[in-house]
């Protein structure tokens, strides 16, 4: 009898624990911040900043992730609100006040992010949300995402979080806002797209949501209307895997990985397209293919240790780009060969094969590049987003 009881207890303890299904938080939008430049850093004083984001997964409530991670002094947010919006910024719903620990305002310490309280705003997949932040005091230099590709509206003096305004100025950055999360009862997962300007959407049309991962989000929403699929941008234009160059290109991928990937709730998949800047910005002394591969191996190991599936993307052709040098092409080819054949990644998305000119495979297709021979145009980004095999995401 004792042996039977011991065996039963061991079996019970070793059985998988079943948790009741319930609401969970998912990352639905992101824009990693970068350090401010040493001069002409952006600040705001007694102004309201309004920015529109198109989320991916829908849900019953949302919350905001604000950032003062590069601020040298506390950031005072006097008030904040959210509203459903048209992609052009026009509000289509009531402005709902945002609270932080029950308070309408928050002081975010230097070097820190902050999450808002849950906001009772039901959002559909691919909805546009307007987010207004009022800064009563001069802000620290902005922890901004410089490649916003969406108009940011800056008010005249005053708190406009509860009303409309005619902007005193505009910009195309993300200011003190690095993430949006949704709470959903539906089955849901989040995909992190980690990379540089090609994932950040450089040279795509402003206010059009034409990054390649925007098209991926649209396809996932159409395929699985009863499942919440978050697609979160964790790319920074100019970013490198191994080193940090100009501060506006962000810290090296290996340094920012934990913040920009592991902090996102619901992350199950990661798609990595990064390394061409290591080659191009390396000029006459770029890192070797083996050094870049070692960086990718680190990203893979760190992601898999947290249970993520990790998909590698081949580097696109870049002959004709301002920083192209012939010595860089063999490095690109060697890294791509490793991505395709090593088995280190759980799967491969071969954007190089998709985007190269068959007649000149070291260059992008002329009708799918934006004019700088490095970044795709809207048609190219759309082709990339439609090329990704949805069977990778289950």
List the helices and strands and how they pair.
Layout: H1 2-14, E1 24-30, E2 47-54, E3 61-68, E4 75-77, E5 79-85, E6 96-97, E7 106-108, E8 112-115, E9 128-135, E10 144-145, E11 152-157, E12 169-171, E13 174-175, E14 177-184, E15 188-195, H2 197-200, H3 212-223, E16 228-235, H4 253-262, E17 267-273, H5 276-280, H6 289-304, E18 309-313, H7 328-341, E19 347-349, H8 351-355, E20 356-357, E21 360-364, H9 378-387
Parallel strand pairs: 15-16, 15-17, 17-18, 18-19
Antiparallel strand pairs: 1-14, 2-9, 2-11, 3-8, 3-14, 4-7, 5-6, 5-9, 10-13, 11-12, 20-21
Helix pairs in contact: 3-9, 4-6, 6-7
Explain this structure to me?
With 394 residues, the protein is an alpha+beta fold. The chain folds into 2 domains: 44-179; 187-392, Rossmann fold. It is 23% helix and 28% strand. It contains 9 helices and 21 strands. It has helices at residues 2-14, 197-200, 212-223, 253-262, 276-280, 289-304, 328-341, 351-355, 378-387; strands at residues 24-30, 47-54, 61-68, 75-77, 79-85, 96-97, 106-108, 112-115, 128-135, 144-145, 152-157, 169-171, 174-175, 177-184, 188-195, 228-235, 267-273, 309-313, 347-349, 356-357, 360-364. It has a 6-stranded antiparallel beta sheet, with no helix packed on it. A 5-stranded parallel beta sheet has the order 16-15-17-18-19, sandwiched between helices. α7 (328-341) links the parallel β18 and β19. α4 runs parallel beside α6 (289-304) and α6 runs parallel beside α7. The longest helix is centred in the last third of the chain and has 16 residues, at 289-304.
